[in-house]
Design goal:
This protein is mainly alpha-helical. The chain is 74% helix and 0% strand.
Length: 121
């Protein structure tokens, strides 16, 4: 029973997930801080995108929701164009081509040939 628990704790996937959560938390802090910088720059250019005090129809939660929505869109923009796009480009540049040489049989053709040979005996 104790050995099973020890095996569970030392399982590679558990460690990988723990590291991912720690790095994710640290990355969230950096992204949030950068989003605040972007929002501050937007405020300098054209007014503060802060809707916290806006209360249409007497609803107190609409303003903070819109502020959070704007922050989310800015954060998604930053993550996509600052991380995803460069990562995909780098991945494409470092990716080794997996093309077979021209005229080489495909996997399906090889399997069909093996099947036919096995049928003949």
């Amino acid at each position: 029973m104790i050995q099973g628990f020890k095996d569970f704790l030392l399982r590679g996937n558990l460690i990988d997930i723990a590291v991912a959560f720690i790095i994710g938390g640290a990355f969230a802090t950096v992204t949030t801080a950068f989003t605040k910088v972007v929002v501050e720059l937007l405020a300098k250019l054209g007014g503060s995108p802060n809707f916290d005090s806006w209360q249409p129809f007497g609803m107190n939660s609409i303003g903070p929701f819109l502020t959070a929505l704007v922050a989310f869109i800015i954060m998604a923009f930053v993550v996509y164009f600052g991380i995803v796009v460069p990562y995909e480009r780098l991945k494409k540049l470092t990716e080794k081509p997996t093309e077979t040489e021209p005229g080489a049989p495909t996997t399906e053709e090889l399997l069909a040939e093996i099947r036919d040979l096995l049928k003949k005996g």
